[in-house]
Amino acid sequence: MRRGMTKAQEVAYDLREQIESGQLAGGDALPSESKMMSQYGYSRETIRAGVRLLIDEGLVVTGQGQGKYVREDYPPVVWNWTTLESRSRHATAVEGQTAGDQWASAIEENGNAPRQEITVSIVEPPAHVRECLELPADGLAVARKRIRYIDNRPYALADSYFPQELVSGTPLMEPRDVSAPGGILASVGLVQAKYRDEISVRMPTRQEAELLALPAATPIAEHTRTGYDADGRPLRCMVTILPGDRHKILYEVDTD
Amino acid sequence: MRRGMTKAQEVAYDLREQIESGQLAGGDALPSESKMMSQYGYSRETIRAGVRLLIDEGLVVTGQGQGKYVREDYPPVVWNWTTLESRSRHATAVEGQTAGDQWASAIEENGNAPRQEITVSIVEPPAHVRECLELPADGLAVARKRIRYIDNRPYALADSYFPQELVSGTPLMEPRDVSAPGGILASVGLVQAKYRDEISVRMPTRQEAELLALPAATPIAEHTRTGYDADGRPLRCMVTILPGDRHKILYEVDTD
DNA sequence: AAGTGGTCTAGACCACTAA
DNA sequence: TAGTGGTCTAGACCACTTT
């Protein structure tokens, strides 16, 4: 046994080496537990503890039915938050079809099939959103909650919140994609002059993991964009949950 | 036993409820394993498996010496990437003391004690950095690797890479803080006209976890900023590893 | 039917820390 | 010294999938 390592750590160390060296490539099956038990002469739970270390590092996923596999991620979707806001201002209108919103059309341009499940409701927003929108303690918000799929795989949760008085009675209250030149806010006569993005990184909640079908040890970025009008009044707050294994966030900025 | 739950999940469910309801607050100790064994009548490994589910969710940390505790995070350091680049242009010079770099002075303004360990070396950069700097396959880079501490707790890893020919023989090659109006690039006569930020989210490598003293289930953001001159030539690539439990990333953008 | 992993038990020994 | 958790074992039973 290696110096200063438990037996489980030794198993993890050996497997990690094989993975990092490419000897075990992404998608390959790990040796079975019984194989490793006889190879090392360790008990089953010890072998399992070793493999669990790699699962917690995100290097190994456990196939539903049987077998454990070296984790293999699809190339991440690049999410350009800089151009997302401005792209629609320059876009030519799409004729003869429902173009969907900015996200959906960006995905379509890439040759993939976007889909969103949208539910609209009037809610007491979560504390963080309430702060962003500068709502009073009893202020209500219109929430548009979406689950975004690409090629029928879940990719992100995107919940938009609007101060109720700004949007009641507008198309924003309908649970459908909203496509409009200038973006969803422009469609109800609001102009966004500034935005503020906040990104934090954490493990998903149980619910988020379930909705997004996340493998073990998949962290998420919580991206909150608050949009303001020219007077600095908050118009919208969008909270997006981006799984780390399928997203890359991009900003492009010209230094003035 | 609850329907559709294993015993371990039941234990996790109960504890999670107590944590989310505030009945168990941040920093509180969980009941001991033996207490829960007699409370539930389950074996020790089963109880431990239940608690492990919460550890993997990032809700529970296992105290160094003994005891398990509800996770309690310090308020995150807000990292404003928009102003970090421009702040130094407007900053008044600090007289009579070594001001450190932009990061250090931002932390000091907040009343905390920054510290960095810097090592400078000439390296073959990692593939991702090579791409960002548009270096040929055998191109070398000057690497400034820093470990950043606040009040003697590690906060981030920040590795900057410069194309070798741009900086050889400049103060950038010395392993010291570089403080200059206009930023570190200006100090060697380079002007950054544009930058491009890439953020991805993942679990830390073993090494990162060790350098940053990360608790279990602490994901990180890998932030890569590439700076370009007015002709679009890459000047610098900075890779920052930001632990999710102590950072929040901020961007503030005026829609043009 | 054979092989996989998932769950669970009842022990054991150890290192550490607090009283 | 008593109590904590960390590691490890040798079983067992189960659900699932592949052949």
Short description:
Chain A is an alpha+beta fold and 256 residues long.
Describe this structure in words.
Two copies of one chain form a homodimer. Chain A starts with 6 loop residues before the first helix and ends with a strand. A six-stranded antiparallel β-sheet of chain A has the order 4-5-6-9-8-7. In chain A, strands 1-2 form a two-stranded antiparallel ribbon. A two-stranded parallel ribbon of chain A has the order 3-10. Residues 86-99 of chain A have low confidence and may be disordered. In chain A, helix 1 packs across helix 3 (44-57). Chain A contains nine helices and ten strands. Chain A is elongated and about 70 Å long. With 256 residues, the first copy, chain A, is an alpha+beta fold. The first copy, chain A, has two domains: 7-70, Winged helix-like DNA-binding domain superfamily/Winged helix DNA-binding domain (Arc Repressor Mutant, subunit A, Orthogonal Bundle); 77-250, Chorismate lyase-like (Chorismate lyase, 3-Layer(aba) Sandwich), CATH 3.40.1410.10. Chain A is 29% helix and 30% strand. Chain A binds chain B through residues 16, 45, 56-58, 76, 81-82, 85-86, 192-203, 205-206, 216-217, 219-221, 242, 244-245, 247-256, and chain B through 16, 45, 56-58, 76, 81-82, 85-86, 192-203, 205-206, 216-217, 219-221, 242, 244-245, 247-256. The structure holds a DNA duplex (19 and 19 nucleotides).
